Amino acid sequence: MRLLEFLPAGVVYSPRFADFAAAAFLWFMRIVLRPSLADDNIGSPLKAMSFQFHATLKPGEFFDMQVFVAAVRHRSFDLWIDARGLAGEQRFSAQLSPILLDRRSFTSISIPEHARQSLRHYRERFGLEGGGEDPLKVGPGAVARGMNDPY
């Protein structure tokens, strides 16, 4: 198993990017959805995760991540994460697609209406411009700050 991926341009990307995206996802779930899902015995594993790398993050470099609700479906939804250096230069973007499941039966379930309302409210407040087609045309968004710690 290779822990690093080398691109033709000679840029190295670490598995830490998945950690960064997971941290933003967990923050989103804790702040936006957990209050509405906590008592319902509902889990939210990821069914898909994808990344696009735009520029290198140097060790110890700080960056901001903005989280946006890109789509809401019957049983799942998409989050776009836009990571930028402190001067605003784009570093990476990610899409995460959690699916809701009943923790007792481990079967997928419909997004409860109260959770759907939370997602809609968040999207209205911090939504993607242009109907969510392009994750990089973003409004002010909710920002989480991180640091590239390679260790």
Q: If you had to describe this structure to a student in words, what would you say it looks like?
A:
- It is a single chain.
- The chain is an alpha+beta fold and 151 residues long.
- The two termini are 18 Å apart.
- Helices cover 24% and strands 35% of the residues.
- The radius of gyration is 16 Å and the shape is elongated.
- It has two helices and ten strands, in the order E-E-H-E-E-E-E-E-E-E-H-E.
- The longest helix is centred in the first third of the chain and has 22 residues.
- It has a single domain, classed as Thiol Ester Dehydrase, Chain A (Roll), CATH 3.10.129.
The geometry reads as elongated
Along the chain, the helix and strand elements come as EEHEEEEEEEHE
Number of helices: 2
**Architecture, according to CATH?**
Roll
Give the low-pLDDT segments: 6-10, 129-143
Q: Which radius of gyration do the C-alpha atoms yield?
A: 16 Å
Mean pLDDT: 78
Strand order of the largest sheet: 4-7-6-5-10
Q: What's the β-strand tally? A: 10
Biggest sheet features:
5 strands, antiparallel
**What share of the residues does DSSP label as strand, in percent?**
35-45%
The SS-based structural class is: alpha+beta
- Amino- and carboxy-terminal Cα gap: 18 Å
CATH superfamily: Hotdog Thioesterase
Assigned CATH class: Alpha Beta
CATH topology label: Thiol Ester Dehydrase, Chain A
Count of all domains: 1
Query: Can you give the helix content as a percent range?
Result: 10-25%
Tag the structure with descriptive keywords.
elongated, three-stranded antiparallel sheet, alpha+beta, 151 residues, 10 strands
